Amino acid sequence: MTTHDYFGDLTTSIRSQLAPGEEFSANLGGESSEFVRFNGGAVRQAGSVDQLALDLDLARGSRHVESSFTLSGDRELDDARIAQALASMRTQLDSVPPDPYLMRPDEVRSTAVTAESSLPEAGEAVDAIRRAGTGRDLVGVYAAGSSVTGFADSRGQLNWHESANFSLDWSFYLRADKAVKNLYAGTEWDTAALDRKVEWSQRQLDVLDRDPIDLEPGGYPTYLAPTAMQEIASMLSWGGFGLRSHRTKQTPLLRMIAEGATFHPSITISEDTVGGTAPNFQEQGFLRPDRVTMVEGGVFNDHLVSPRSAREYGVATNGAAGGESPQSFRMEPGDIPADEVVDRLGTGLFVGNLWYLNFSDRSACRTTGMTRFATFWVDDGEITAPVNVLRFDDTAFNLLGTRLVGLTDTTELIPDSSTYQRRSTDSLQLPGALVEEMTFTL
Known about the structure:
The protein is α+β, with helices and mostly antiparallel strands and about 450 residues long. The chain has helices at about 5-15, 75-95, 120-130, 190-210, 225-235, 245, 255-260, 305-315, 340-345, 395-400, and strands spanning about 20-40, 40-60, 65-70, 110-115, 135-155, 160-175, 180-185, 220-225, 270, 290-295, 300, 330, 350, 355-360, 365-370, 375-380, 380-385, 390-395, 405, 410-415, 425-430, 435-440. The relative contact order is 0.14. It contains ten helices and 22 strands. It is about 25% helix and about 40% strand. Strands 1, 2, 3, 4, 5, 6 and 7 form a seven-stranded mixed β-sheet that branches. The chain has a six-stranded mixed β-sheet with strand order 17-16-13-8-22-19. It has a six-stranded mixed β-sheet with strand order 11-10-9-12-21-20, covered by helices on one side. It has two domains: about 5-210, PmbA/TldD superfamily (PmbA/TldD fold, 2-Layer Sandwich); about 220-440, no CATH class.
């Protein structure tokens, strides 16, 4: 029996156990994943994870309680766990207050999506990674496998999403605190694509072996690679697009809604569900549209609206999750050929990674953080020397607005590599960005 069918059978059984006036919704999350840790170019640890977890919500009117537990795949054992959870939740229902913002879908809309992918056998991937580490100190983690997400409720709705992807998050370590970092990830494995990334990392490693330079605080022309843009996009997603954060004036894009501030006309940002790896439904069973364009041509266009915010503020939901953050973030590419960014930069900084980001002034979308791993000085279109760690402090209205020169003509798919509870299905699709000046404070 497939996991899809097993989930359907379980929820049919739950439906049959409901008392008069009761409703339920259930969310399933699971994975079948392989993890391999590398150090010194060799396998140091390998393992696999197979897990299923069920989040069950029992409601009577607007009162509801939740229970979460793992599933074993053994029907008798799982039925017993579900029966125990239902009994426990029934005893709590009369004690919890009504939820004024509880909202359920008006119509039953079942879906089933199995995303196409082509992943290698674990041995094939490990062999390719070990070859990439020959003669180098390769350090990193390879993670691959399938993820499943399901929703079902007492009305008979059943939604299913199954996808598979891989990610190799690795560094070539040189010495002390010197390393170059790279990421190869996606849904279609291509050894030639990995080889190209390895070649680029080796070029960076050769430059990293030169004497580093210290830069004085100030503003420098900068190229931000997609992996550096990932950190900036993640900060924007922290309250930047949700209706609730806008209505409560806690959004980092406050200047957009209060003062009419804009980004550069080339900036278009969307929740691209059809192009991402996250499910096309959320935890209350509302479906997501193929795309929600939050910023179009530099101007704020639309919010992500969860069902709870929809009920609270009297607007329609567009299927956003409770946190109202993008799960399939996409920034449209520009017109700068990706293989010409160093020439276009001329003289300035090539930044491959950023880390330790936080808001230094949230209401102004001002962020501070550090350069990470290999950051290079470019002189007349040639990468010449590594640059010691820098701290930046700048606002997205500069980096994606008044100081943006342009975006690369290609984007990179960057899956969320977090594995808290289970592997994330979130992703970002990002170009690189060339800015005429980025402000560094030390």
